[in-house]
Amino acid sequence: MKIVINGKSEDLPDGMTVKSLLESKGINPQIVACELNLNVVRRMQLAEAQLKDGDQLEIIRIIGGG
Amino acid sequence: MTTQAVEKSQDGLNTLQIGRYRIASRLILGSGKYKTMDLMRQSLEASGTCMVTVAIRRVNLQDRTESPFWNAIPKDTTILPNTAGCYNIQDTLRTARLARELLETDLIKLEVLGDTQTLLPDTELLLQATKILVQEGFTVMPYTNDDPIVAKKLVDLGAAAVMPLASPIGSGRGILNPLNIQFIRQVVTSVPVIVDAGVGTASDAAVAMELGVDGILMNTAIAEANDPVQMAHAMRLGTDAGRLAFLAGRMPRRDHAAPSSPTQGAIGGSK
Q1: What contacts B45, CB < 8 A, 6 or more positions away?
Q2: Which carries the bigger pLDDT value, residue B38 or residue B6?
Q3: Which residues of B are catalytic?
Q4: Under CATH, to which class is B3-57+71-248 assigned?
Q5: Could you read off the pLDDT of B37-84 as tens digits, one per residue?
Q6: Is the CB of A37 inside 8 Å of chain B's CB atoms?
Q7: Chain B touched by A4 (CB under 8 Å)
Q8: How many Å apart are CA B225 and CA B210, to the nearest integer?
Q9: In B86-227, which residue ranges form alpha helices assigned H by DSSP?
Q10: Touching check for B34 and chain A: CB below 8 Å?
């Protein structure tokens, strides 16, 4: 399936959840927040958030800013 | 006032009430543009700030090196996420909601910018975003123009503070329209007025506080100073000095000189 992650299209194996995607990329879920198709995915629901073809995912973090 | 009384008056010198948040400093600092994380940590400490702004950005999926950012933020600092870089309602709301999820805070420094050249706020969109986020339970701190009419509208919509600019973000030009800042102070009485953006040096901070505002938010003035730690200290003193001067009440401005020494008894006789 094709998923757009942070604006870039990626080919991923079917059946992934947001949580398994974060794990596959070595991202600690505690230091990011995710948004799937414009809706925030609550931290507790990362494992239930099933990814499907055409999904748009944003993974964000905190950085310095004014 | 006795020294003891002055010290007592200083107990209340540094408290800012923003919604249900009690912030023990009138200076709020940004966390951008520092040359090193260590310089930032030392600057934050020297400023005495208890509230620090952060930005929300995409994770870099190519470079997963973790930044020591959090180690540079003093413990017990209240984190204020911003929506910097948002130019429309949707991006602004999305950023605010992601910030709330990530930081488990309802605080948001709300920026909806009009263009990349001036970084001035789009106040029409700012009002709309404020309304929506207040309804969603956010403690909204909008970055706005030095416009008392918009300031009043923001308060009426439920903003927890009003943050007019002194001058454009990162310009360091100080307060361009002190009269408007005073007008804002006059119409906004129920929530703090915090001058946000444009302060360049310690005297700007003092002038802002002398106008009667409740606090100042700054980033570049410290981060881009030759010695950020020293400037952070200067900003702390400037803010305190301005606040004390405001509380003390300044003397009236006069058109003519008025001698400080007695006019009678000078050795050449009276003029």
Answers
A1: B74, B232
A2: B38
A3: 109
A4: alpha beta
A5: 999 999 999 999 999 999 999 998 887 776 778 888 988 999 999 999
A6: no
A7: no
A8: 23
A9: 89-103, 123-135, 148-156, 178-187, 202-210, 220-223
A10: yes
Residue A8: closest CA among chain B residues belongs to which residue?
Answer: B61
- CA B194, B196, B198, B199 torsion-angle sign: positive
Range 120-159 of B in CB contact (< 8 A) with A: none
- In this prediction the ipTM stands at 0.94
β-strand pairing of A8-11 with B139-144: unpaired
CA count, 13 A, side-chain hemisphere, B222? 36
Of A6, A25, A66, Cβ closest to residue B58: A6
Distance CA B66, CA B55 (A): 16
Rounded Cα–Cα distance for residues B78 and B83 (Å)? 17
Determine the Cα–Cα distance for residues B182 and B175; give it in Å rounded to an integer. 11
Which domains, and CATH codes, for chain A?
A: 2-60 (3.10.20.30)
End-to-end C-alpha distance for chain B, whole angstroms: 36
Of B263, B243, B202, B260, which Cα lies nearest the Cα of B47? B202
The secondary structure of residue B114, as a DSSP letter, is S
The whole-model pTM stands at 0.91
Q: Are A64 and B220 an interchain contact pair (Cβ–Cβ within 8 Å)?
A: no
Set of chain B residues whose Cβ sits within 8 Å of the Cβ of A60: 56-59, 98, 102
